[in-house]
Amino acid sequence: LKMYQEIGSKRGIANTYNNRGNIYLSQGNYPEAMENYLSSLKFHEEIGNKMGISNNYNNIAIIYEHQGNYPEALEYNFASLKIKEEIGFKRGIADSYENIGNIYKDQGNYPKSLENYLFSLKFNEEIQYKLGIDVSYEIIGNIYRVQGNYPKASEYSLAGLKTSEEIGYKLGIANSYFTIGHIYYEQGNYP
């Protein structure tokens, strides 16, 4: 940080504050993480770095989500999404919709959660991001399962399993089998 300050690199300063925020976030030190993200945001705003601003908004949203402050988390996620849409960053758009879906899911608002995960899936499919597609399938399948829509739950979970197998994603394979097992169990289908 000191070196970037000495040479006057606002981008370097902003990125360093963001990295420090990430460290504090991983340690669960939300006040220090927030302070560093806000410092990073200030410098990204000064240089007009939209991607940096969007990332800071996303990181701030994560803090609010971990604290259970869902309205603030949603506000920052929507602000991050808006910037990603403006600059056409489809992978980031997919991630933002997934983050928003997570918050609605945490609140038990499954229809809004599902709506956002389906948007995430759409953008992941557009850019052919297989891991993102897989995660979307898994989560969508699980939401349908929780809602008792077992045909849709099976459809998405099986699609997730197929995608996981294609890319060799073992955690995805395990998650898909777990959800599929729950679907059978909840229907009383014990082979």
What does this protein structure show overall?
With 191 residues, this protein is mostly helical. It is built from 10 helices and no strands. It has helices at 2-7, 10-26, 30-47, 50-66, 70-87, 90-106, 110-126, 130-146, 150-167, 170-186. Helix 8 packs parallel to helix 10. The longest helix is centred in the N-terminal third of the chain and has 18 residues, at 30-47. The protein is elongated. 41% of the residues are buried.
Task: Lay out the secondary structure.
Layout: H1 2-7, H2 10-26, H3 30-47, H4 50-66, H5 70-87, H6 90-106, H7 110-126, H8 130-146, H9 150-167, H10 170-186
Structural class: mainly alpha
Number of helices: 10
Number of strands: 0
What string, H for helix and E for strand, traces the elements in order?
Answer: HHHHHHHHHH
User: Can you give the mean pLDDT?
Assistant: 95
Spatial shape: elongated
User: Biggest β-sheet: count, sense, barrel?
Assistant: none
Q: Whole-Å distance between the termini?
A: 61 Å
Rg value: 19 Å
The proportion of residues forming helix, as a percent range, comes to over 70%
What fraction strand? under 5%
Which residues sit in consecutive blocks of at least 5 with pLDDT less than 50? none
